Amino acid sequence: MAVSISVVLLLLILAVVFLRNGALKISHALVCALLGFYLAGSSMAPTIHDGLTATADMVSALQP
Which of 6, 18, 30, 43 is deepest in the core (most CB within 10 A)? Predict the structure, then answer.
């Protein structure tokens, strides 16, 4: 759960930065949000979740 909240916050911060810089229009952000909702409800959702979890585990296992 903490990983998905972190990813959502990261994507939200990136979207805000892009909106302020003018690189992302409101319509583009809306399309991206709708795509996220449709992906979450699709059969690919468990695969995407497992991939993000594996990546987060790999990154957290790295020692500086």
Answer: 18
